[in-house]
Amino acid sequence: MLTPQSVGARFPRVTGDAGPLLLVVVDTEEEFEWGAPFSPSNTSCRAMRSVHRVQAVLDRFGVRPTYVIDYPVATEPDGYEPLLEIFRDGRCAIGAHLHPWVNPPQVEPISSANSFACNLEPALEREKLRRLRAAVAERFGITPRVYKAGRYGLGAASVDAVRALGFDIDASINPHWDYAVYGGPSFAAFDARPFWFGGEPRLLEVPCSSGFVGAAGPLAPALHRWASTPALERLRMPGILDRLGLASRIMLSPEGYTLDEMVRLADTLIARGVGTLTLSYHSPSAAVGHTPYVRSQRDLDEFLGRLEGFLEHFFRRPGGRTTTHEAFRDSLVNMRESVAGP
């Protein structure tokens, strides 16, 4: 299990004193049925034709998202063509996103466990990532710096591969979430703060913004873990804690969370001194019928409304600013401020 101590995390001095920073990362991927078995043949990227719907909302607020793109998006015209115009206009940044089951070489058995790249043989994970990086570089004419593992599948060997291939920013960690039940990693020991790790050259982790809100305060993570044990989860205890207002685990995303929940999480993290927020979503949610979150036109309208409502709330805050992952890392390097932690 990864922990801040096991990766040698060093936390830069980033607080909200000068105004909080907002970053946006888009898991940019092919369409597939989330509840069905993984299949190498699911490489359609038709939903990317609708990416402009969400980009238009971000443009209105001057937000430049980072599209972390997987192999089908990097190699299928339906995937990359809608992004090229946005990228050439300077309205976004581009990174890499590894879905092992649709990324060559496809030699591993297809399974839930192997959908997490960190479970592959290290040499295979590295080769898949190398080919993905080359495809992104060829299509967009850049060397991608930002990596986000599909399904948050980051492990110790993944870190070595990411560093060796020249990435200097990772965005894979989803704090307080444990994917072990699916065969994946656990990030229960992490919080939403960015940190340096991985030796030299240093990697910057910019995690998802996930956390707890509720009356339980600092006891919320432990209370939620207790409620999430198999016996209590069958009794829907996490939902009971949520309804009682004691401990709600929220991710900063318009997918599956209300505007009120997104605002509560953001305000709570900022109040706790977290100076950066990362909002994330999946590119297929820009069209109807490709994710569990957008099954109808009404769902799509509400998804876009939640995103716009959150951005309005965030930029009403004094000093609220936006940046990209690359610019954020470069600013930290220029400041040369890093302290031991946690």
Give descriptors for this structure.
342 residues, alpha/beta, TIM Barrel, nine-stranded mixed β-sheet, two-stranded antiparallel ribbon, globular, disordered C terminus
The structural class is alpha/beta
Oligomerization category of the chains in this entry: single chain
Q: How many strands, what sense, and barrel or not for the largest sheet?
A: 9 strands, mixed
Radius of gyration, in Å, reads 19 Å
- The number of E-state strands comes to 13
Kindly state the percentage of residues in helix: 25-40%
Q: List segments where confidence is low: pLDDT < 50 over at least 5 consecutive residues.
A: 337-342
Residue-averaged pLDDT: 93
Tally of contiguous helical segments: 11
- By CATH, the architecture is named Alpha-Beta Barrel
Note the overall shape: globular
- Strand percentage lies at 5-15%
What is the total domain count?
1
Question: From N to C, what is the helix and strand string?
Answer: EEHEHHEHEHEEEEHHHEHEHEHE
Find the CATH superfamily: Glycoside hydrolase/deacetylase
Distance between the termini: 17 Å
CATH topology: TIM Barrel
Q: State the CATH class.
A: Alpha Beta
